[in-house]
Amino acid sequence: MSPTKNIFRLICLLFLSLVLLQSCKLGRFVFYNFANITDHKIFPSRTVEAPETPFVFPYVQQPKSPKNITVDETEVTFDEYLSQNKTVAFLIIQNDSIQYEKYFNKYDEESIVASFSMAKSITSMLIGIAIDEGKIKSVDEPITNYIPELKENGFDIVTIKHLLQMTSGLDFNESYSNPFGHAATFYYGTNLRKAINKLQLKNKPGEKFDYTSGTTQILGLVLERALQGQTISTYLEEKIWKPIGMEFDASWSLDRKKDGLEKTFCCVNARARDFAKLGRLYLNKGNWNGQQIVSEQWVKESTRLDSSDNSAWYYQYQWWLPNENGTFYAQGILGQYIFIDPEKKLIIVRLGEKHGKIRWNKFLPEIAAAY
């Protein structure tokens, strides 16, 4: 057989393999290769409906635009700087008014963007509400109260607080470049409950901080069990999305269509303005125009500097704390941010295709300091 025919057969075999494998983890990984902000299109999901009457941020009459940026001794506008660094949406909101709102690369205010790990902070909000409502007793409960099948793996000594603070001791490979690793299994896999049941511990809980997406996915299963039949998506809709007046429907990606579990470590798909409203909710200590959506105490515990119980001072209940100035943020892998500065009553949302060349966790506080 000629070399040309062999190559043709190999190409056909590879194509057929990809087609057959697209519905499973490895096929998804090979076909899509790496996470993208349009990944809401490739996974099944549940819709999170917006209310009929939305809350709308007004524009400030005399906006204060960010200053030009000097790059390699060349001055560029702030717009150009954002665009050059893979940004698709950028909002600055202060005192409930929009100071700056720009979209790039054919994106606009109606464009859907995947949250990635900003969903961890949203999951934390829902855990706090579930505790307020008595669906979960306390953060000190062992997670096996809700996932008893994990007792066999030694998880009876892991508490909900360990999960919230990323001190669970979970053995989890966070690498997204390994198709056989935990992260790929959780992101591209089609059975999260089964994947969770296979997890093990590598350290004693409460010994040290170790950021892993698997930790938040276990937290999601705890929440699903606590809701006793209600989906996490409908809980988000009922408790947050509709009460705070989101402008658009959102969705939460699932591992599979039938009886799917929300990917609580990632994958809330929404628009920039609605992400900003989540920031406004926590800026106002869980209160929305007089209605306490999340308890003030939960917001305080989630965003305070605390290194007790071997937690990291810069990370609490699924929120990042960049400094000692009281600011905090939700963050996604490709540079998605909801940044909150309570003292300045300021919210910044940055959504991007990649980080670009900017260290956003340093740059966003600098922008806030200028207001």
TrEMBL record:
User: For the Beta-lactamase-related domain, which residue ranges apply?
Assistant: 85-351
Q: Give start-end ranges for the coiled-coil region(s).
A: none
Q: Which Pfam families match?
A: Beta-lactamase (PF00144)
Q: Which residues form the signal peptide?
A: none
Gene3D superfamilies reported for this sequence = DD-peptidase/beta-lactamase superfamily
InterPro entries assigned to the protein according to its UniProt record, in alphabetical order: Beta-lactam-related, Beta-lactam/transpept-like, Diverse_Enzym_Activities
Q: Note the PANTHER family from the entry.
A: BETA-LACTAMASE-RELATED, BLL8153 PROTEIN
Question: What is the protein name stated in its UniProt record?
Answer: CubicO group peptidase, beta-lactamase class C family
Classification from the root reads: Bacteria, Pseudomonadati, Bacteroidota, Sphingobacteriia, Sphingobacteriales
